[in-house]
Amino acid sequence: MGRGAHSFFGEMDLESMVEPVVKTAGMELVELTFRREGGGKILRVTVDREQGLDLDTISEISRKISRRLDAEGFDPGPYSLEVSSPGVERPLRRPEDFAKRIGQKVKVKTTEEVDGSRVHVGALTGADEQGVTVATEAGERRLEHDGIASARTVFEWGPKKHRKKRSGK
């Protein structure tokens, strides 16, 4: 599935342990990575659900994932488990991730240039099993899944509000 788990243990092994726990809790496994970082090992699990997540929910799923990994004998030595929501700029990896975001603004980086660019920002206007269509300022771009290096939704902040300066009176 290519969610980025780099093997000390095996991507599919980790995913097969974590994903059932996440699904049973009514959530979606968005991303799973396991890598060396800053002198240690970090297992990052990103989850989401339709109604959003709060800290209590993230804490509970973290405990459940930890218990499952312990029960399965996951012991790569000392590591940190980080469980979080995808945030406002959600990574898009699978065809169904793109299909759920049609109409939203996305940023897609491709492995090769497409129409003179490797970065394509615009509204996601189509998505299927083969690829996606992005309406950029330069026109529509058809991008095949096997040529996408990374993709995410783009959150647009509203206009900046300027505060009026108070007079020194």
Label this structure with key terms.
single chain; 169 residues; GMP Synthetase, Chain A, domain 3; SH3 type barrels; five-stranded antiparallel β-sheet; three-stranded mixed β-sheet; 3 helices
CATH superfamily of the largest domain: RimP-like superfamily, N-terminal
Number of helical stretches of at least 4 residues: 3
**What order do the helices and strands follow?**
HEEHEHEEEEE
Can you tell me the residue ranges where pLDDT is under 50 for at least 5 consecutive residues? Answer: 1-8
Beta-strand percent range:
35-45%
Helix content: 10-25%
Distance between the termini: 64 Å
Give the count of structural domains.
Answer: 2
* Top-tier CATH class of the largest domain: Alpha Beta
Structural class: alpha+beta
Rg measurement, Å:
20 Å
Count the strands?
A: 8
Mean pLDDT: 87
Q: Would you tell me which CATH topology of the largest domain applies?
A: GMP Synthetase, Chain A, domain 3
